[in-house]
Amino acid sequence: MIEKVSFASVRPARSLDLLSQQEMASLATTDQDLHQLFRRCALAVLNTGGDTDDAREVYHRYEDFDLRVVPESRGVKLELYNAPAQAFVDGVIIEGIRNHLFSALRDIVFTQHKFSSQAFGQASPTEITDAVFRILRNADVVRANHPPRLVICWGGHSISRLEYDFSKDVGYQLGLRGFDIATGCGPGAMKGPMKGAAIGHAKQLNKRSRFVGISEPGIIAAESPNAIVNELVILPDIEKRLEAFVRLAHGIIIFPGGAGTAEELLFLLGVKLHPANAGIPFPLLLVAPEGSAGYFDQINAFLTSVLGEEAAAQYEIICGDAVAAASRMAKLIKSVRRQRINDQESFSYNWGLVIPEDLQMPFDPSHANMAALKLHRQQPVHELIAELRRAFSGIVAGNVKEVGVRAVEAHGPYQLHGESEVVGALAELLASFVDQGRMTLDVDNYRPCFELAD
Fold it and tell me: Is the pTM here over 0.90, yes or no?
């Protein structure tokens, strides 16, 4: 039986003075699109610690969940109906979850009111970068005068215990060295580094730890914020979420994962390989326990065969040694600090990086768009990277996002076409993800949402 709290009234711990009277009123109106968007994100936050990554299952379990925004002169109040019981202790909402709930409200309202008139799909690269900055600044994630110490950790939510424990070990070593952690905020390789770093910070008596979770509405129900996240920000879509990671990062560590992790890696390689970014230090380590060394062997073989040796030169692989991984990252971030000082670049937001426009533009993973992807090498490498990134983005949607799952059920698996060598390498990599149970948490019932043909 699913336990629920029939009614709860919740106020923010601090006055939500970022909301104007007009903004609060808009959330209390009959704008159903905005209400449903916030309802889904709020449910994901309240469902922290849930046992499924199927967004539809979450929505079905709590189909009677609802909420009401009540504007008050001193701020705003939320009334919750039939909320997940695990978000409460003795009838009182858990403090971290309360903060996340109002973070979701803040981000959705800010994006709606500041950018609703601006069609992101038609915005220029400069406008998109500025919008990402303003959303992060509004969330108090961008902070001036902080030294470079934010390490982004990417990796799968569906990983083995061995991989989870190793990601925690790496996080512990990073925490001992004073690094803050940002992840996609979910379970698995997103939770492990944060949990380890929290222990490392505690050992060093560091009381100002930052554990930043960066999500977007389409994925948050499948990857609810884990219990370690103390700063949550929700970007409008996956492309802006990825740009936020890259602009905030001082270094990135990638642990084993599935299609989503491959999408993130490709996005970053598309940035690092852009000629305008040559010479800008951007540490990238691929890190795994010794027992999973073969995972990155597969990734490396795929990238080398499809994109060439130049792509493989953009990262280092470290297996089985958490101390070496953290020490190497610490050394590389020193070069980031020197470059930022020499170029008078901000520590908090990397304006100097050029992100190619085709990586910034939102991609709709419809069956027609997936079938139209140009998966061949008769094009510039950065364009192929963008097409591959879109392919993995569509597979993520078909695996765990409500819209994608429904589309696959209605129209069958996505069809991907291209050059035989590219499609063959992609098929081999995806087959390994399926065999290793890296696509979803429900491994036994997983059916591929894609088919490949040359």
Answer: yes
